[in-house]
What does this fold into?
Amino acid sequence: MTIPVDQILIQTLNGIVTGMILALVASGLTLIFGIMDVVNFAHGELFMLGAYVGTTTMVMSGNFWLSLVVATMTIALLGAAIQVTTLRPLLGRDPLTTILATFGISLVLQNYALWQYGPVPRKILEPFTGHFNFFYLEYPWYRLVIALLSAAIITALYLFLKFGTYGVWIRATTQDRIMAAAMGIPVPAVHTIVFAIGSGMAAASGVLFGPLIGVNHAMGLDWVLKAFIVVVVGGMGNLGGSILASIFVSLLEAYASLVVSPAQAVIVSFVALILTLLFRPTGLFVPTPK
Amino acid sequence: MSATPARTAPLVAVEGIHTYYGKSHILHGVSLEVKTGEVVGLLGRNGVGKSTTLKTIMGLVHPTEGVIQLEGRPITRLPAYRLAKLGIGYVPEDRRIFRLLTVMENLRTGLDRHGVAESRKRELLDKVFQYFPVLAERRNQAGGTLSGGEQQMLAIARAMMLEPKIILLDEPTEGLMPRMVSQIREIVGALHAEGVAILLVEQNVPLTLEASQRVYIMEKGVVRHHAPASDLRHDDAVIHQYLGV
It folds into this structure.
């Protein structure tokens, strides 16, 4: 069975676009895990609530970009509040405790969304329509913009971590939180800020991806699962790895959905996860530890 | 608890500290003090609780009983980052430099504090690069690529960035070549000359006796002996009894 080249090209683009959104979600997740050893099962709900705040702001203002900013800020604050009230007291306890806590938070947030917004999916309108020419094909502009914007946000994060003053604090705390505290770095505040950044990034992904799928209270579930796969395949706590893994896994799925139905294409992600755990458990893109 | 007037209070006073690691009772009522600008040695065999004492003072582990005071004010259960800001510097036994940060970034973790003028930061950097020229050479190298001796220097330099009133030094000469050991001795002397107090935990008895004004000797989680360092230079019996040297 031959697959037409133009379908392969389109799926490559789709894979990259989805991969960049996934990278945005996964970066926040891996950042949070890397610094405070918290496996944030509520991350998908932050994505979902970001999309909902986006829809509400869109309805009120009609401005997509404003909605993006408002959603990111709002959910960043929500994330900070969740971390301070629920996760900060649990620091240093058994990892299972935080997994259960974040899982509980995810249930609360999902049901809140269901209660607040109802079961009917909502739609965010794309800020612009129209296609551009990719070789001899047409591809939606908006999808390209999502990919570029995600790349820009991730690059900004990277630059902040590498060169900003607080970036050094975050990296020091990630490597050795005890010694960071002994150096006067306010570790509890750093944890809260990182959780807020991760939450904001998840929310931004929700708004950016919102126009492509329906916004409903369960939309986080698919994404958090994929994000976890990507974080493991890329190496837990490894920012660069999770970005590469996001694109890798998304491309695999995109190509697979040429051959099987999209619902079945998800299987390749799980295969990638299992193979990684079996043969390169520290991550596919992480050099084997010395 | 007696009220000591701030002027005559020791810089750091530790009274009756009991510290546990889980169920292990490590410190059984440790009391000691360090006066402003003093170098005080803390000797003892492995496992008697010397490092734990430093960690307790630094707030990295909290005592179940007892009081710690800084300049007469109780600091007993404050978190470590508050204590670093109040003027306690810590150089741990395993150095614990940030391996993935550069030398410069390691120093910045102590340098980038609020309320410090840029000119003061440059002064501090210049001073530390004078003491440790090799750190200036390697300033953009990742901490993990430094040799053991260089990492020890970085750990001390990093603590100096906090402009601390007292530095808790945990076995700084462990595993170092003799040339580096004498460099550490010089640094301790230079810090003392600047008025920085030092609580020095060491296995190297001659160095400790030479660098310190007073010495405590610990055994099994308590302080057993306390004397001016000059007394102990000649008193080999005590050293032999508690340290088996």
Strands of chain B lie at 12-21, 24-34, 39-43, 65-70, 73-74, 88-91, 166-170, 197-201, 214-219, 222-228.
